[in-house]
Amino acid sequence: MSSVSYFKNANNFVANNPTFTNTTYVSGGDALQFLYEHSATGAMHDSEERFPPPMCHPGTREAVVVRITDWYGYQVGPGKPIMWVHAPAGYGKTAIAGTISKMLEEAVGLDFSPIGATFFFWRTSPERNSPTRFIITIAYQLAISIPELAPHVENAVKRNPMILRKALEVQLVKLIVEPFKAVGNLEDIPKRLVIIDGLDECINSEQESRVEKKYAEDQEKVQVRVLELIHTLQSHCLPLSFLILSRPEAWIKQHIESRSFKGVVEIVDLYEVGDHMGDLEKYVRAELSRIAANIGDEGWPGENTAQDLVRRSNGHMLYASTVIRHIDDPYDDPRERLKHILHPSSSPNLHLAHSTPFSSLYELYRQIMRACPASNRSLMIEVLEDIVVARPCFCPGSGFQRALATLDSLFGRPPGSGIRAVRGLHAVLCREDATAGDGLMLDPFMHSTFSEFLLDRQFSLEFVIDMQKGTRRLLRKCLEYMSTITMKTKVEEKKEPPVCSSTLSAHLG
Question: Is the overall model pTM greater than 0.90, yes or no?
Fold first, then answer.
């Protein structure tokens, strides 16, 4: 659009308190283009921004893919219109979403496109980390996917182009609900699948200052708002099904399990579907074989080495894929690189050996922690420090929440402070009352790399924890507590304390 001069060649006049009205007109042929230009095109499954998109390795995640496609049901549609697939960081949720998108897009024998719309949130992308363009992007894709819907979406844009500046809830009604109602009989329209990946990556960055900060502190509200938008859409009985994939953040889990969602959502814990350890082993072995063929050493790496990498990955596809990317370097020997990862002591530079292969993993950890409110971070770091220092002192079977309650009491924090402080760390902590099982200590970390990350300032930066300081704090508090015990102190024999006294004394030395 060219610039306009309202008073070209005018002179010797004064305009007092002028008012200018800029009206936007959109013609029929330009309506969808206008919508496209305001969409978050990078959030679509086949966008250039996401190319090449993460996909499941051939032969893996088959159980969860079947579970999702069976639920969707194509023409029939699912019994429950929403499915929530959740798992911690590194379990391949985005790859599953990409695989489902590609599979449905390439489905044969159908006279319609099963994919209605996709939106892949991404925390560090300005147009993909905010809900601002969410409804616009979904509406545009639905208009392309469903021919019957397109003219009614176009009419909505033509009638009021400024709808793109309205609240998301208004956009939802005007750009999706009302156009569907205008179609008439919706029973003849096959169900389309709308895929929303990475809901936990959605932060409120509508203001420029928030975009610069990247990590907003009101992310809980904005993620719940997106859930409410989805719930509103399904309540209108439209020919749409919704697949949501995210980490099991406390506020997301709580909202999806609330009364309003009950009966309309199917919840799938990715960790419990299929053989994720078997899938990871297939991936590791296939990739190691490929690299071995490239270097002409088909006897490498050997059974023991392959099993060692599988064990260290512990089901985390992110960890395994990071290792594979690191060792698959044309300018270095993958055999030496893998050796340095599996046996760090053999590396001449321990930090260098770890910093390169796990930089993406550590950056992910930093993003997770930076997403927590700044006002809560000092307490969060203190609680994490307490966990790392004191975890050898807790007996197996103590339970994470009970352990934190004990630490709250010991350090004089208000009850529940510890569990609230780590509320936003579901991706890296087993916050449920998981125990150490047959192990020697309570270990709530999803993966050992997280505790290693916390202890090394080079990687954790502002989130580093100080073991020496934490140990001194724990020792001082234990001594203060012990000094209050006298012969007259009553001890409830029925309540076994979660702390092993022998382990505590050995740990504090």
Answer: no
